[in-house]
Amino acid sequence: MKATLIVLTAAVVTAGCGGTRTVTRTVTVDRTAKTGIGPPREVVFYGHIKSLRRDGRRFELRFDPAWFLSGSAAEHAAVEDKVLQPGEPVPNDNYTVEEGHRLLTFVVFPNAHVSVLTKGLQSTAIPVAELAEILAGKNPQHRALFDPSNHSAFWIRVGEKYPNPVIALDQQYHP
To answer: pLDDT tens digits, the chain, 175 residues: what are they?
Structure first.
């Protein structure tokens, strides 16, 4: 009986050891991912550029933030604003809430990424200085801009390190 118990115990232990395998999993973490306490490494805002002017070796951006909503948040906001009746679909599945028009001021360095929309809905990279001229009503490179009215909205990404500069400005398509 004692010998049977030892053999049975050895069989269970051996079976348990043979089924283990090591699995290595690689996880890619975006460099902008938040780690630890505090704010995220980048903050993204949506809104309208009111001005972009050179200030020494950098630029000063005056920005009017808004909320670009989609899905149920867009539907509820549009109904609350009496733009739609309950149950009506939101055109283009997005709705912009212009809550106020307080201008925020940001630093933009000349090497920030800028993209504007050109004819054919192409995203075209341009220098910050050229965007400043376009916003001032000029078009020095004679680009075929999708919306030359200067009323287009932009997404801006703001970096984490002082002076918290805008590191990217990307024009948003809106029909």
So the answer is: 544 444 444 444 445 555 556 555 555 555 556 567 777 788 999 999 999 999 999 999 999 999 999 999 999 999 999 999 999 999 999 999 998 889 999 999 999 999 999 998 999 999 999 999 999 999 989 999 988 776 789 999 999 888 999 999 999 988 7
Cβ atoms of residues 151 and 137 within 8 Å: no
| Beta-strand relationship, 42-55 and 153-159 | antiparallel
Positive or negative, the CA dihedral 100, 71, 154, 33 is positive
A 10 A CB-CB count for 131 gives: 22
